Amino acid sequence: MTCAINYAPRLRAQGLRITPQRNAILHVLHHSGGHLSPTQVFEQARKEFPGLTEPTVYRTLEDLAEKKFLLAAHVGNGKIVYELAEKQHHHLICHKCGKTVEVDHAPLDLLYHQFESSTGYKLDSSHVTFFGLCPDCQS
Amino acid sequence: MTCAINYAPRLRAQGLRITPQRNAILHVLHHSGGHLSPTQVFEQARKEFPGLTEPTVYRTLEDLAEKKFLLAAHVGNGKIVYELAEKQHHHLICHKCGKTVEVDHAPLDLLYHQFESSTGYKLDSSHVTFFGLCPDCQS
DNA sequence: TTCCTTATTGTAACTTCTTACAATAATAGA
DNA sequence: TCTATTATTGTAAGAAGTTACAATAAGGAA
Ligand SMILES: [Mn+2]
Ligand SMILES: [Mn+2]
Ligand SMILES: [Zn+2]
Ligand SMILES: [Zn+2]
């Protein structure tokens, strides 16, 4: 049923309770593998748990992202998508065709340190989106 | 009335027509100086042009941002704010208190070049938001 | 000026997202 | 197992943002 995903201990370690709603949502994101919008999560998770409602989905996605189970990435015009937080990475999106590539965080590390010393802020490992034109769309 | 703002020639140069709706919207952003949400733009611009409607505001903000008159910055959870596009810069936002500092683009330039050569994408001068904890919120 | 073209707008309906609060149910402890 | 605590949820209503399309009006040409 829950396809051997064991988020339970990590959830409990964060003080989060294990509910069928959360299971359904994590399950959907786990299986899709990719980036899902809140609406997509809602529609798919509702199949596994028919009573599920929208406020629960939005709240859960935010909570799980805050606790680092999920990664929230904005994809332009205020749209955001979620994915399972595995390795830290960032997105590079073609503003013409939408094609997205994932880039490693490493090259940003130096920059983060510069910002930290120049501003006094302590930066998160939060996701960043860069926009541009993919190779195919440059002609 | 239009407080000596002369967007007209630049607008026309981009093939955009000059309408009272656009004037009102640009006027509001010009005077506020800061970052405004679409709702704030709508409410304030409506005072100058009472017939103004929401779809027009959203469309106009997107169009003006695409043509580089405005800069669209996301501020977390899919919220975006607009400001006049003057110098290219980025934002560093405290995820606890919301305090925002603007940082220069220069230190990102090298990174952009690295990404361009490693991915083949040609990057935009689009806005990036970084999140963290401001000095006051670190204790 | 007048007419023509077409970018821009408003309308109406809809979808997505948010809020406040009362009801529920997951956990810890007896 | 039962009970108490309180995190989590659903409800109901509303706000924010989107869509498709017909009506309007800005700007160029006659
Ligand atoms: Mn990704
Ligand atoms: Mn700014
Ligand atoms: Zn492309
Ligand atoms: Zn702060």
Which sequence of SSEs, written as H and E, runs from N to C of chain A?
HHHHEEEEHEE
CATH topology of the largest domain in chain A: Arc Repressor Mutant, subunit A
Which ligands are bound?
manganese (II) ion, zinc ion
Main sheet overview of chain A: 3 strands, mixed
Please tell me about this protein's structure.
Two copies of one chain form a homodimer. In chain A, strand 1 and strand 2 form a beta hairpin. Chain A contains five helices and six strands. By secondary structure, chain A is an alpha+beta fold. Chain A has two domains: 83 residues, Arc Repressor Mutant, subunit A, CATH 1.10.10; 50 residues, Dna Ligase, domain 1. Chain A is 41% helix and 20% strand. At the A-B interface, helix 5, strand 5 and strand 6 of A face helix 5, strand 5 and strand 6 of B. The complex binds manganese (II) ion (2 copies) and zinc ion (ZN) (2 copies). One zinc ion binds next to loops of chain B. Chain A binds a DNA duplex (30 and 30 nucleotides) through helix 4.
Helix and strand arrangement:
The structure is a homodimer of 139-residue chains.
Chain A: H1 8-13, H2 20-32, H3 38-48, H4 54-66, E1 70-74, E2 80-84, E3 89-94, E4 100-104, H5 106-119, E5 122-123, E6 129-133
Parallel strand pairs in A: 3-6
Antiparallel strand pairs in A: 1-2, 3-4
Bound molecules: manganese (II) ion (2 copies) and zinc ion (2 copies).
One manganese (II) ion (MN) binds at residues 35, 73, 83, 89, 91, 102 of chain A.
The first copy, chain A, binds a DNA duplex (30 and 30 nucleotides) through residues 12, 15-19, 21-22, 38-39, 51, 53-56, 58-60, 63, 78.
